[in-house]
Write a structure and sequence with these properties.
Shape: globular
Strand content: under 5%
Distance between the termini: 116 Å
Radius of gyration: 26 Å
Number of strands: 0
Structural class: mainly alpha
Largest sheet: none
Helix content: 55-70%
Order of helices and strands: HHHHHHHHHHH
Mean pLDDT: 79
Length: 265
């Protein structure tokens, strides 16, 4: 009995702005066929159209994600949390772009600065798309629990997952260019993750309410998480140990002058 010949897999046609102007198709391309999307970006005569759509998709996703964070406390957080989310990610991206180019160059890739920026736009859009998928789950817990620690843990977990898969777009872009060495770029991914985590602490509060919109208090994000998990307030953390009077400090002018007449003025 003769077996029928195997059906060849159809080759995916590259997405181009001329054949695909739908955000929905770009969204599906990010999730289902990132290699196809990368092919469309690299071969398109107007790659800026793709980059603009990816950035707009990222902006919309991060805004909705921020609104979900703000819904935990409502009030001013409904607009403050999404604004801080977008500002924090925009600033993190800008300050990490130079190091992204440097670490990408260390891999020996042929990608230029323009392709690196396009890859970063794709990574941000993919992160935002994944966060959109988690938004309904986060919203349920934002309305059903009052524990900032538990809700913060869920937000952190979703962000780690989004960064893990989102930055994979950059790794796929390296593979598409024929680059096999990816170690330096993986180091950069760790740097980008640390920057975003510190930025979330710098722009706090993203969850919960505060008397001020921004805080001028410097704090490492691990320290902030520890204080938040133990329920320690800012005043308790910053409470200083009373210092002894200058007269009782050894070696001080006032203390020594009381014992040494030669130091009296």
């Amino acid at each position: 009995m003769n077996n029928p010949p195997p059906i060849p897999d159809p080759e995916l046609e590259p997405l181009t702005p001329q054949t695909d102007t739908s955000f929905a198709q770009v969204f599906e391309g990010l999730l289902k066929s990132p290699q196809n999307l990368i092919e469309g970006i690299t071969k398109s005569e107007t790659p800026g159209a793709f980059t603009s759509k990816l950035l707009l998709l990222a902006l919309g996703g991060f805004l909705i994600f921020g609104v979900t964070l703000g819904s935990f406390s409502f009030h001013e957080q409904l607009w403050a949390a999404p604004l801080k989310t977008v500002l924090g990610l925009a600033f993190s991206t800008i300050i990490c772009l130079p190091s992204l180019y440097v670490f990408s160059a260390l891999t020996g890739t042929t990608l230029g600065i323009k392709e690196i920026i396009q890859g970063m736009a794709g990574a941000l859009a993919l992160m935002a798309s994944l966060l959109l998928g988690f938004t309904p789950v986060l919203w349920v817990f934002s309305q059903s629990t009052t524990s900032e620690t538990f809700f913060g843990f869920l937000v952190l977990a979703t962000w780690l997952i989004a960064v893990f898969f989102g930055t994979g777009f950059l790794l796929k872009m390296l593979s598409h260019s024929g680059t096999e060495k990816k170690g330096p770029l993986k180091i950069w991914i760790g740097i980008f993750l640390l920057v975003t985590l510190q930025m979330s602490t710098t722009l706090r509060p993203l969850i919960g309410r505060s008397e001020s919109f921004f805080t001028t208090e410097k704090r490492f994000f691990l320290e902030h998480w520890g204080l938040a998990a133990t329920g320690t307030t800012r005043d308790q953390a910053n409470k200083e140990i009373p210092r002894p009077n200058d007269a009782t400090v050894k070696g001080s002018k006032r203390g020594d002058s009381e014992k040494n007449p030669f130091l009296d003025e």
